[in-house]
Specification:
With 209 residues, the chain is mainly alpha-helical. The protein is built from 9 helices and 3 strands, in the order αααββαααααβα.
Length: 209
């Protein structure tokens, strides 16, 4: 009887861990599917960037507020008619949100409000070791390779990202294909900080509007 109880407990723990892993993979797959549906020109590094941003947010502390504000204003001036969603989640855990500068352009919030949220989000960046991120990325990559092996340049981009991580680096830019197709202009904001900004938004335009 005691043996059966221990065996039952073991099976329960194994099943629980298995379900957790499956749930994680399902969430990752949903996030990948979502990005590829809205941004079909995405490459592996664009998917990597989204998941990285969900883990690390803006990725660096903003030391010069005036410079950061000037940079936003320059982007708005250089791209007078922005497109895309006002906001969208990063990665699979929705820790951070990309807020499109189009929201500022359409007077849904001010550049100063967006910058303040961006700065606060940068100050809350988690102190996580690169080894832990590598483990998470390998899990994400396995899902991408399983369900979307036909992403253009997948093998080459995988090698490039592997080289980046082996050097202890982890930040990367959007691919040229993504930038040319969608001309992204956004700032990364922590989800809880974004809530007060997002509540004023009307239903967001699609990526091609």
């Amino acid at each position: 009887m005691k043996f059966l109880s221990l065996a039952t407990l073991f099976c329960f723990v194994a099943l629980t861990c298995s379900c957790g892993t499956s749930a994680t993979q399902d969430a990752i797959r949903d996030a990948v599917d979502r990005q590829l549906e809205e941004y079909p020109e995405s490459r592996l590094q664009d998917l990597y960037k989204s998941f990285f941003q969900d883990r690390f947010g803006p990725g660096h502390i903003i030391k010069d507020r005036d410079w950061a504000l000037e940079f936003i204003l320059e982007e708005l001036q250089e791209e007078p008619s922005m497109s895309g969603r006002y906001n969208e989640p990063c990665g699979w855990e929705n820790n951070y949100v990309r807020i499109n500068l189009k929201a500022v352009q359409d007077s849904l919030l001010s550049a100063e409000e967006l910058l303040d949220a961006f700065i606060q989000s940068a100050e809350a960046v988690p102190d996580e070791k690169i080894t832990e991120w590598k483990k998470e990325w390998n899990t994400i990559l396995s899902v991408i390779e399983r369900y979307h092996p036909d992403i253009p340049g997948l093998s080459k981009d995988k090698e490039s990202l592997d080289s980046l991580l082996s050097l202890g680096l982890y930040a990367t830019h959007h691919s040229n294909e993504y930038r040319n197709a969608y001309r992204p202009h956004y700032r990364i904001v922590r989800q809880e900080l974004a809530d007060s900004l997002l509540c004023r938004f009307a239903p967001t335009p699609t990526a091609n509007q």
